[in-house]
Write a structure and sequence with these properties.
Blueprint lengths: L11 H4 L14 H6 L22 H15 L27 E5 L6 H11 L7 E5 H11 L1 H8 L4 E7 L4 H16 L3 E6 L13 H7 L7 E5 L19 H10 L3 E5 H8 L7 H4 L5 E7 L5 H16 L4 E5 L8 H4 L4 H17 L7
Parallel strand pairs: 1-4, 1-5, 2-3, 3-4, 6-7, 7-8
Length: 363
């Protein structure tokens, strides 16, 4: 027999079989956590001129103007002097006046778009700028330790923190202490935040809560209020109804780069994977297909699902599902509780991704 004889080919179904999130056990080295602190893929190409202000909300246009000027002002030498100081050099005094901006608005008004645009517009090399969510920043401290995190980030020109978690007092104190040290080193700051527990009105803003929680750092932030409605529902059709299990399964097999999982099994798997790894968990996927979507059973599970929804939305991964609609994922008690805003954000984002997935189902 010739040595060049080809091996038997797999069937087309086997070749095109979907992946499973439940089969993935991602591990992310600590040094990758720093290198990957850049705007997520969804915001790779956003810029101030791609942000479309609502003509009925002048605060949105004003935010673009102020942030553009803030970015331009971050050019030149690092605020604490170029390069690292030697141990015998006198420490440069911290700059006076606001060295940070806080984007204050409801969900879906484009705060992350603006925050990423600020990162892109700041005239500094990517390794001199950092962008991450509050959760990713606390994970970085956990991986590197507090002092090493200060040393790692102190040479940066800008640190952007999305979704500052005001509902976690312990982590708020930790990150506030970290930001205080970075401000002393001349690092400019920009942040968005979630509302505190009990702040249930969608139209309410978190500025006073944010400035109070970061305490001594409040003088370093200029607050920019951004009014508006959730752009994901601005003039868009209602979310599509869930598909049948057969339709979802068929689409998963027909879509290259798709995953297929039973929803309750996926929720159980998320409990075994640290949320800092959910980005790696979803890496390389072009679609997520879920069968048997049911309401989440408890708040811990719900909060993990919120993080997964954020990572899928960041990466623009369509989500095709059977079972209950996404607006029925969370109980009335959850939607009226302290994490209400997170759950509404997850519903909004999953609805947008479900809309993106409509083309995966053949007529």
């Amino acid at each position: 027999m010739s040595s060049s004889t080809a091996a038997p080919r797999q069937s087309p179904i086997a070749e095109a079989g979907p992946q499973s999130l439940c089969a993935r056990e991602p591990h992310v080295p600590a040094d990758r956590l720093v290198a990957e602190m850049v705007p997520p893929p969804r915001f790779d190409s956003v810029r101030f001129d791609t942000y479309i202000p609502d003509p009925n909300q002048p605060s949105q246009t004003e935010a673009v103007r102020v942030l553009s000027g803030f970015a331009a002002g971050l050019g030149g030498a690092h605020a604490s002097g170029a390069g690292k100081r030697r141990w015998f050099q006198k420490k440069t005094a911290a700059p006076t006046g606001p060295r940070g901006v806080y984007l204050d608005g409801g969900y879906g008004v484009g705060k992350t778009h603006l925050l990423a645009s600020l990162w892109h517009a700041t005239p500094a090399a990517p390794e001199q700028k950092a962008f991450g969510t509050f959760v990713e920043l606390t994970n970085l401290v956990g991986a590197l330790g507090f002092q090493q995190t200060v040393r790692t980030l102190s040479g940066h020109r800008l640190l952007c923190i999305d979704e500052f978690e005001l509902d976690d007092p312990g982590d708020t104190v930790l990150v506030s202490s970290l930001l205080g040290r970075l401000v002393e080193e001349g690092v400019a700051l920009a942040a968005t935040s979630n509302t505190l527990p009990g702040k249930l009105g969608e139209g309410r803003f978190a500025s006073a809560d944010f400035l109070r929680e970061i305490q001594g750092l409040s003088t370093h932030f200029k607050s920019l209020r951004i009014d508006g409605d959730d752009y994901r529902h601005r003039g868009l059709p209602e979310a599509p109804a869930p598909y049948s299990e057969e339709q979802v399964t068929k689409a998963a097999y027909a879509t290259a780069g798709a995953s297929l999982d039973d929803f309750p099994h996926l929720l159980a798997h998320l409990a075994r994977v640290h949320p800092s790894r959910y980005g790696a968990l979803t890496g390389g996927l072009d679609a997520v297909c879920l069968t048997n979507v049911t309401p989440v059973p408890d708040q811990s599970t719900a909060l993990r699902l919120v993080v997964l929804a954020d990572r899928l939305y960041d990466r623009e991964v369509p989500v095709l599902a059977s079972g209950v609609p996404f607006d029925q994922l969370f109980s009335e008690e959850m939607l009226n509780g302290g994490y209400r805003k997170k759950y509404f954000r997850a519903i909004s984002r999953l609805t947008a991704l479900a809309r993106d997935a409509q083309g995966l189902v053949q007529a």
